[in-house]
Amino acid sequence: MRVGRADRDLDLPRVLDSAAPASGADQRHRLSPTAVGIAVAAIGITLAAIGIALAAIGIAITVWIGLAVGVAPVGNPLAADRLPVRTRIAHPELEAVTRPRLIATDLDGTFLRPDGNVSALNARAVEKAAEYGIPFVVATGRPSRWLGVLDAVARAHPQVIVSNGGAVVDLATRTPILEFPLVTALTIGVLDELRQQIPGMTYGFETGVGFGCEPDSPSRQRQEPGHFVGSVDELIAALGPIIKVLGFHPGIDSEHLTAQAAPIIGERLTLTHASVSQPYGMIELTAPGISKASTLAKVCADLHVDAADVIAFGDMPNDADMLDWVGQGFVVANGHHTMKTRGYTEVASNAEDGVGRTILDLLS
């Protein structure tokens, strides 16, 4: 977003003789050099008088005025019948590029390096944003339990969007501030239909603070202490409000699983997916209308920041709504192939600290 300077051409109208030309006549007004000289001198005197008057009352003003006057010999028409006046008013207090008022980013595959850690350069970028008073908001598919990696960026915004927008949690305490739970009866109905039409589906359930999955689920989260294992009905009863459902399939990758599930789910739930490093496909479901974008919009509203003043970074389809919503979306070079065709600005990969480098460039 660039701020332009006032730079206008003002067209002054022709000054016509008070006497109307005779019918059918092609009359032009002729001025002698003497007359033109007197007129220009009069203008100069007037401008000088204005300058003296302004100086007398202590007003400092810089004006650049260009006068183009066409003068022809006596007997020829005046060549220039307009006086283009260009005014140029400088605004040194305005920056050439407006900085973002809020920065949002995904974590895995985007802000985090391939080893899952925060690089020194990316941490420095968060510090720089904080110095300018720019909130750095994390919007991740991770649950609240997996935010320890953010200890390396203590000056990140204290509210983190987790579970693809299913909740906002306090970074310090890892407790939910805001949740968008799924409707139980609707969700169970959708999951039953998916299992009927795509045999082999198993499920996991995220809450603001916990997790549970079916016995045959391949989720690595089943290895965590405190997780629940049971049937869908048992899990929902034990866990309480669900903010995200994970759907697994051992023989279908995430992209194809999403394509098969989409017409079954329709608009009843929000469907997306991200890459997984395990040998199974996974889809992610949140309440209808809930995504990283919708929850980021609520965070921005609380901070009185418009979407146009926000930039965001992502790599996978679950980031697309967020990158579409903000003023400018950036996709890292290692992003999903579908993200490269959506018109986002491509930056260096997460292995090359693309997020941090872009932020530092914008704030330099």
Can I get a quick summary?
With 364 residues, this protein is an alpha/beta fold. The protein folds into three domains: 84 residues, no CATH class; 153 residues, Rossmann fold (3-Layer(aba) Sandwich); 103 residues, 2-Layer Sandwich (Hypothetical Protein, Haloacid Dehalogenase-like Hydrolase, Chain: A, domain 2), CATH 3.30.1240.10. It has nine helices and 16 strands.
Can you walk me through this structure?
This protein is α/β, with parallel strands linked by helices and 364 residues long. The chain has three domains: 6-89, no CATH class; 102-180 and 290-363, HAD superfamily/HAD-like (Rossmann fold, 3-Layer(aba) Sandwich); 184-286, 2-Layer Sandwich (Hypothetical Protein, Haloacid Dehalogenase-like Hydrolase, Chain: A, domain 2), CATH 3.30.1240. The chain contains nine helices and 16 strands. Helix 3 runs parallel beside helix 9. The chain starts with 5 loop residues before the first strand and ends with a helix.
Q: What CATH architecture label of the largest domain applies?
A: 3-Layer(aba) Sandwich
How many discrete structural domains?
3
Q: Summarize the amount of helix as a percent range.
A: 25-40%
In the predicted model, the low-confidence regions spanning at least 5 consecutive residues are: 1-97
Global morphology: globular
Measure the end-to-end span.
15 Å
Strand percentage = 15-25%
Radius of gyration: 32 Å
**Largest beta-sheet details:** 6 strands, mixed
Describe the secondary-structure layout.
Blueprint: E1 6-10, H1 33-56, E2 85-89, E3 102-105, H2 107-111, H3 120-131, E4 136-138, E5 159-162, E6 167-170, E7 176-179, H4 184-197, E8 202-206, E9 211-213, E10 228-229, H5 232-239, E11 244-249, H6 254-265, E12 270-272, E13 281-286, H7 292-302, E14 310-314, H8 320-325, E15 328-332, E16 345-347, H9 354-363
Parallel strand pairs: 3-4, 3-14, 9-10, 14-15, 15-16
Antiparallel strand pairs: 1-2, 5-6, 6-7, 8-9, 8-11, 11-13, 12-13
